[in-house]
Design a protein that fits this description.
Elements: H1 6-22, H2 32-37, H3 43-46, H4 53-78, H5 84-96, H6 99-105, H7 109-114, H8 118-142, H9 148-163, H10 165-169, H11 173-182, H12 191-204
Length: 210
């Protein structure tokens, strides 16, 4: 077992503090000072490990992709065969279980990534790459008749779809009031419901999934 360095422990403490804040505070309202108040060390010390607030959030983002990939890997370990409905349900549940990932996806990623170092961004993109490969692997395992181009079409639609999933399934009270005033019926479904229907529809529109 690889020993965890002192630096990694400190970074993990900072990330956990930011995660705790993010449960109740928006990204724009979280500051390095507030994060330091949830840790055992001072605000200046945080800059020894993360140059910006965005760098901390990018690390949370990277972790979330890693957790999601682990969840998807568990599907393959537990189930040898899955039909379209079962697969859609299992994959949708992995997204239901990752609200932080979906919340981060709904942010302005351009600004987030531009405020991070190239090394940090590369490490994050490696985990994103793993997510792409893992979804394609699941499709290969459970729908062996699906051709590569069909798998790619699924991925090109499914991943952009995830960017709008959190705000669509988590409408704020202010948004509800505005939509009511505008005469718009706001959605009342969970992340799982939206994800399941989308995955199910995408699979049914691809050849070789039976």
């Amino acid at each position: 077992m690889t020993a965890i360095s002192h630096s990694d422990k400190r970074k993990s403490e900072i990330v956990r503090a930011c995660r705790a804040l993010y449960q109740n505070v928006s990204f724009k309202d979280i500051t390095i000072k507030e994060i330091s108040e949830y840790t055992s060390f001072s605000r200046p010390s945080i800059y020894n490990y993360f140059a910006t607030k965005e760098s901390i959030f990018l690390e949370i983002f990277r972790e979330e992709y890693a957790f999601w990939c682990d969840d998807m890997d568990d599907i393959v370990k537990k189930y040898k065969k899955l039909g379209v409905k079962e697969f859609a349900s299992k994959l949708a549940q992995t997204l239901e279980n990752r609200p932080v990932l979906l919340k981060l996806l709904s942010m302005n990623l351009y600004d987030l990534e531009e405020s991070c170092s190239l090394d940090e961004l590369t490490e994050f993109k490696q985990e994103y790459k793993r997510a792409l490969y893992t979804v394609e692997y699941l499709l290969t395992v459970y729908f062996p008749r699906m051709c590569k181009s069909a798998r790619e079409r699924f991925i090109y639609i499914f991943f952009p779809f995830m960017f709008g999933l959190y705000p669509y399934a988590n409408v704020t009270q202010k948004q509800k009031q505005a939509m009511t005033s505008a005469g718009i019926k706001f959605p009342t479904k969970r992340v799982y419901d939206f994800a399941y229907q989308t995955i199910f529809s995408l699979l049914n529109n691809q050849g070789g999934t039976k």
